[in-house]
Amino acid sequence: MGALTHGAKRALRAFVPLAVRKRAAIWLGGRTWLTPRHWWVTELLRDYAARDPDGYHRFLWAHHLGYAETYEVARRFGAENINETRRLLFADLREHLTGLGMDPQREVHSVFEVGCSIGYLLRFLETNVFPAAESLEGIDIDRHAVRAGSAWLAGQGSKVRITVADMADLDRVVGKRRFDVMLCAGVLMYLRRESAAQVVGAMLRRTGHVLALSGLAHPERDNAELEESGVRARDGTFIHNLDAMVQQAGGRVVRRRWEGARVVDGNTIYFVFAERATTTSGSGREQGT
Ligand SMILES: C[S@@+](CC[C@H](N)C(=O)[O-])C[C@H]1O[C@@H](n2cnc3c(N)ncnc32)[C@H](O)[C@@H]1O
């Protein structure tokens, strides 16, 4: 398809039904010898990405295509493989909890991660950050990642439990339980603003002490000033105003970090930590309302 002209690619997208092109994308994803596979998949589905970005990203992740391919057990588990942006996020998280008068090593009992992939961050939290946590759970739409991660975690005797689910179904999946720490890193950028805001609301309702969000920073303006979400040209992901989403959901931003154009591990840095307006801690407890 690399040799195809723009006109031929447009014609292909116009005349071959999306369902057929999706099947072709899944087939291409399995051909490990083919480079660059992600480029081919992108070209096949370019119109879908423009029309329905949520559906497009969901499709790619659910089938472990494109950017999902680096989420493999051998590449991600282990403290030495945790990238700099996540280390920074966890350092901020530790500092925030300490500032609340808590000992993160002893007093964090439950963690939930939305978009946990193979569960490698939860495992790092279990071994290196919150060793007293009895409950470490996560969901992800990538079935391949969850299956591979679960098998590895079971072999380590880990308490981490991860399951396949769409973050849009968080209410149903988590029910009324609440977790000391809710985490969502590098995930909301795959949803349009309205859908992302709903997920933020659902996470906040289940937050005991703190909700930790990591998103893409706008390179020039602090995200908190954005009236509309931006789009990163390279992959069609969204640059959101997470501060506004927290406020819209009735939460309070308690700590944040915005580093503008600085790129670390290929991404800009924007963290938002939030609490429900009235916070009472509670590992896996029932919600009051
Ligand atoms: C960039 S990865 C981040 C993984 C991990 N949180 C980290 O920080 O490395 C984005 C993750 O979000 C997951 N994801 C994307 N859309 C999702 C959805 N609708 N529901 C649940 N998970 C989703 C992907 O499968 C992927 O594992």
Any key phrases for this structure?
289 residues; alpha/beta; Rossmann fold; 2 domains; eight-stranded mixed β-sheet; two-stranded antiparallel ribbon; globular; disordered C terminus; binds S-adenosylmethionine
Top CATH class of the largest domain: Alpha Beta
Radius of gyration: 19 Å
Bound molecules: S-adenosylmethionine
For CATH, the homologous superfamily of the largest domain is named as Vaccinia Virus protein VP39
What is the name of the CATH architecture of the largest domain? 3-Layer(aba) Sandwich
Unreliable parts? 281-289
- Most strands sheet: 8 strands, mixed
Please tell me the total number of domains: 2
**SS-based structural class?**
alpha/beta
What is the helix/strand order? HHHHHHHHEHEHEHEHEEEHEEE
